[in-house]
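== Item description ==
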Amino acid sequence: MDHGVVMFPTEYSIAPDELARALEERGFESVWFPEHTHIPASRQSPWPGGGELPREYWSAYDPFVALMSAAGATKRLRLGTGICLVIERDPIVTAKEIATLDRLSGGRVLFGIGGGWNAEEMANHGTAWKSRWRLLRERVLAMKAIWTQKEASFHGELVRFDRIWSEPKPLQKPHPPVIIGGDGEKTFDRVVEFGDGWMPILRPHTNPVEKIPALRRRLEQAGRDPKSAPVSIFFAPPKREVLDGLAAAGVARAIFGLAPEPRDRILPRLDSLAAVIRA
């Protein structure tokens, strides 16, 4: 089982390049940066984490710019979005951005996506709450067409464009893995149709690991290899017995959460996490 770290990169936390370098030096497989373009000051949508919304939600760097900084400081570390809010992004521009990052990093991108939770935030981007998942689906399918076709076009309900030329193409073939976040009723529908992985959050009251056999059955029924969508667990507890259980259940990647803190607090934390992994 591989191990990664997710953290909001901010101006007041350890810099993305320094974090990435420290992770690679300690043997971690991946770094993951979340995304929020902004947070509406009305604060109508409740934060799923409960309580007051932390400052990093409206002060994080753009994930792709931060990941490019991380890429330049490392050689092997995988570069993940956790998650990218596709529902707030133009698919043609985003396809170009991901392909560029994948090329310049030597093929290390992990494209984690999700539908988001802040209705007002996505509304500011012109996205309706009720149709956000349909929009996500079409934007992902459109990006796959751009990445894999010399002359791509797409004609859906919400995304439409005629033949275009767009290069570079991603270095990874056919494209960087699209890893689906969430743990809802229709999540597996999305994983089976257009996903290359599943990355649910491990919460105190839910255990998505128990659903791995069901996901594999769904993939097999769809004619796919049951292991073609490996599972990554977000916010895995850094406890040896829990990690052993995740590995035994078939989890491919455990991702630890870090608060956006300065280097003098982050580096000792990374040392502690690395010690748990080695134990």
